[in-house]
């Protein structure tokens, strides 16, 4: 069974999302695009929320969010319990977000990345397993009450 990969973007990330969904489909992933559906201006939190809810509920294991810089999508997604959305800017940060942080959402900035680099980053992110061990201990610390 193909691994499910969900995508969301705002208008700024629309074209990059289309390129990445095409790449992922060609690689055999079950791709689900939660929007947006065109270049018309939209509010990024609507689409960040859709993907984050799928991850937080357990209906999906991995997702990709794209906006102009990736910052807004990161802020939105990380408000959901169990979501570890990582804004990455190169292949190394994409790999480490999986290896050390077990990121379940890759966040990309369409205005700051080339399409070819974004594809390389997605490939690296999908191919990199979580290391566990001391990194698991650190993730568990994130779920502890902060007292705030």
UniProtKB/TrEMBL annotation:
Keywords: Isomerase. The active site is at residues 67, 100. It holds the Pfam family LacAB_rpiB. D-ribulose 5-phosphate binds at residues 10-11, 68-72, 101, 111, 134, 138. InterPro entries: RpiB (IPR004785), RpiB_LacA_LacB (IPR003500), RpiB_LacA_LacB_sf (IPR036569). The keyword Isomerase applies. Coiled coil: none annotated. The keyword Disulfide bond does not apply. GO terms for biological process: D-allose catabolic process; pentose-phosphate shunt, non-oxidative branch. One of its GO terms (molecular function) is ribose-5-phosphate isomerase activity. It comes from the Bacteria. Belongs to the LacAB/RpiB family. This is Ribose 5-phosphate isomerase B.
